Amino acid sequence: EDMYMLYRGLMLPKETHSLESLQFAQELAFKDEDVVSVTYPKSGTVWMQEILPLVLNGGDLTPIQTTPNWDRVPWLEEKRLAVVVDQMTSPRALVTHFPYNLMPPSFHTSKAKVIYVMRNPKDIVVSSYYFHQMAVFLEDPGTFDEFMGKFLEGRVLFGKWTDHVKSWKHTELGDRIMYITYEEMVQDLPAALRRISDFLGSNLSEETIQKIAEHCSFNTMKENGMSNFSLVNKLYMDFDKSPFLRKGVAGDWKNHFSSEQLARFTSVISKELEGERFSLPWSLD
Ligand code: A3P
C-alpha cells in the first residue's frame, strides 16, 4: 500500500501523483478554449492524447511526432503538468481521471469542453490487470480473480468505476460535455472523429479525418515511440510483462472471465447502477 497515497478518498500512485500536483490541479486556471478528455483508467486515455491535438490543429502531425503523450496532452492531476503547462499553446488539451467532484473551481466557471470516454468495465478490468503487471509503480495485481474483487470493491486507482461514471453523468455541464465510447471508436474511428470534430467546432475535411484515423489507429500508435511509452525507464514499465498498447479491441473479457466471474461482475455493477436515469451502452451479461 506504500506505493499509493489517499486523496479525498481516492487511491493514487505516488510515482505520478503528489499533494503538490493535486494542489496544482486545483489551482489551474482553465481557459474557455481548453478541452479535457475524462476517462476512468484504461478506457482510452492515451488514444485521446493522440486524437485531440490532431483534431484541434487540423491534422498537423508535429505534436505526435515530437512530443511524448504525457507532455503533449498532460494529465491534470499528475506531476508533469507543472513542468509543461507554460509551454502549452491554446487551445490546450488535457486528460484527467478525476471524478466530477474533484474538478477545480476554475473549470466550472470556464467554458472548457469535456469529452467523456466510457469503456465496457469488463474490458477495463482485463486491461487494468495487465497494466498492473507491467507498471512497476503499481501493486502486483495477484490473480485475475483477486484483482476483479478489488476492482468491484473500488480498492483500485481512482476508486469504483460506477462512482466515476455516475459522477460524470450527473453534471450540469449541458452542451459542454460529450459522451463517447471506446467501443464506438474501435468500431468506426472516422465516424468517432467526425463527432469529436463537430463537438469541438473543428470543421475538418473528409481527407483530414481519414488521415487522423490512420495515425490514431492501434497499429500506428503501437509503432509511435511518442505514444507507446517506449521512452520510459524500464524501472517504471516492464514491457516483458505486457506492452502498454496491448490488444486494442472490444470484448477481450471473453478470454478471461469464467461464468462465475461474469455472474458476480454483472450482479455487482447492475446493483450499483439500479435506479440511475442513464443506461449503459453495452449489455453486462
Ligand atoms: P487494452 O489493454 O485492452 O489493449 P488508457 O490509455 O486509458 O490507459 O487505456 C489503455 C487501453 O486503450 C489499452 O487497452 C490500449 O491498448 C487501448 N488503446 C490505446 N490506443 C488505442 C487505439 N488506437 N485503438 C484501440 N485501443 C487503443
UniProtKB/TrEMBL annotation:
Keywords: Catecholamine metabolism, Cytoplasm, Transferase. One of its GO terms (biological process) is xenobiotic metabolic process. Residues 32-274 form the Sulfotransferase domain. GO terms for cellular component: cytoplasm. This is Sulfotransferase. One of its GO terms (molecular function) is sulfotransferase activity. Belongs to the sulfotransferase 1 family.
